């Protein structure tokens, strides 16, 4: 893999905006939302202060995992256009500061979750952080094109954590929500990686479009969309959610499937011709927000 020397950090310490950037706040918003929905969908009442604390812990844990991801991947971030401006590769922060920040934030989030809610939820939160850092970032990311498939489990934990914070356990519904995000992650990231393939290739990251090409990637996007849609709809026929959720899940998943078919039919190999991929990537984010929002609406409006 190609490597590059990182620029030396400035003498002045990084400011708060750099530490915030380490937490990947845009990614964190989806993590926090699915965690909140998991908590709100639970069949118990949670005191607002404890609920807020639980979601804060999920946000801090996600931020810790993101910071440790940037700490470990600073060398490849420096080689990709879309990540070269991050705090470490740009020279605004040294790697040691990012490491200390990520570890400290992670430990604090787990301890606070355990003290405020329950230690089972804290354990699931700790597992999610360790999985993202050790399994996805350190072990899989640079070794296999299946990095997103297996590593996608890391982003699937938040609704389970929210549910566990409220109830102290995990039942079938949060497991299905975990499965939904797990199966959603590959088509979401492969759509992105198709039109930033040159970035991953330059950094030596074996994403599926780099290793197997656009055609195979488009086929895999459709293949993963089918079980994802099944996982999304499943809570309704299983009696875990009502008709409002069922109708929303069917409609939203059908649109996702149509976009995935359009991606499959696209033959472009350059980003300029990948409008279907860009549409699918943008819609995939809306899809997850809408699916989880529908679940909470079904729980609170219909009961």
Description:
The chain is mostly helical and 303 residues long. It has two domains: 15-167, UbiA prenyltransferase (Tetracycline Repressor, domain 2, Orthogonal Bundle); 171-303. 72% of the residues lie in helices and 0% in strands. It has helices at 16-22, 25-41, 48-72, 74-77, 95-116, 119-140, 147-151, 158-167, 172-195, 197-203, 208-212, 214-233, 243-265, 275-302. The mean pLDDT is 92.
Please sum up the structure shown.
By secondary structure, the protein is mainly α.
Topology:
Elements: H1 16-22, H2 25-41, H3 48-72, H4 74-77, H5 95-116, H6 119-140, H7 147-151, H8 158-167, H9 172-195, H10 197-203, H11 208-212, H12 214-233, H13 243-265, H14 275-302
Helix pairs in contact: 1-3, 2-3, 2-8, 2-14, 3-5, 3-6, 3-8, 5-6, 6-8, 8-9, 9-12, 9-14, 12-13, 13-14
Notable traits:
single chain, 303 residues, mainly alpha, Tetracycline Repressor, domain 2, 2 domains, protoheme IX farnesyltransferase activity, transmembrane, transmembrane helix, heme biosynthesis
**Which architecture of the largest domain does the CATH hierarchy give at level 2?**
Orthogonal Bundle
Tell me the series of helices and strands, N- to C-terminal.
HHHHHHHHHHHHHH
Number of helices: 14
Total domain count: 2
Number of E-state strands: 0
- The helicity comes to over 70%
Poorly predicted runs of 5 or more residues: none
CATH topology of the largest domain: Tetracycline Repressor, domain 2
Q: What structural class results from the helix and strand content? A: mainly alpha
| Coarse shape | flat
Distance between the termini: 53 Å
CATH C-level label of the largest domain: Mainly Alpha
Q: CATH H-level name of the largest domain... which superfamily?
A: UbiA prenyltransferase
β-strand amount: under 5%
Mean pLDDT: 92
Largest sheet: none
CA-based gyration radius: 19 Å
């Amino acid at each position: 893999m190609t490597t590059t020397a990182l620029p030396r950090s400035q003498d002045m310490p990084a400011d708060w905006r750099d530490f915030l950037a380490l937490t990947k706040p845009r990614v964190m918003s989806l993590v926090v939302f699915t965690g909140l929905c998991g908590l709100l969908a639970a069949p118990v009442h949670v005191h607002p202060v404890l609920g807020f604390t639980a979601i804060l812990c999920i946000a801090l844990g996600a931020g810790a995992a993101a910071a440790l991801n940037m700490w470990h991947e600073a060398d490849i971030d420096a080689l990709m256009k879309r990540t070269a401006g991050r705090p470490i590769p740009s020279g605004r922060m040294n790697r040691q500061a990012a490491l200390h920040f990520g570890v400290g934030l992670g430990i604090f989030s787990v301890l606070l979750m355990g003290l405020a809610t329950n230690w089972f939820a804290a354990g699931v939160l700790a597992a999610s952080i360790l999985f993202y850092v050790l399994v996805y970032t350190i072990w899989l990311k640079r070794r296999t094109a299946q990095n997103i498939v297996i590593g996608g489990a890391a982003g699937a934990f938040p609704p389970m954590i929210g549910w566990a914070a409220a109830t102290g356990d995990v039942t079938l519904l949060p497991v299905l929500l975990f499965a939904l995000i797990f199966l959603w992650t590959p088509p979401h990231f492969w759509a992105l990686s198709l039109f930033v393939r040159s970035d991953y290739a330059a950094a030596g990251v074996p994403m599926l479009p780099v290793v197997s090409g656009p055609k195979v990637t488009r086929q895999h996007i459709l293949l993963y969309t089918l079980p994802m849609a099944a996982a999304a709809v499943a809570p309704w026929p299983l009696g875990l959610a009502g008709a409002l959720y069922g109708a929303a899940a069917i409609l939203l998943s059908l649109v996702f499937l149509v976009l995935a078919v359009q991606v499959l039919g696209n033959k472009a190999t350059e980003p300029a011709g990948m409008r279907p991929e860009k549409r699918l990537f943008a819609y995939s984010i809306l899809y997850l927000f809408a699916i989880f929002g529908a679940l909470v609406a079904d729980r609170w409006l219909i009961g």
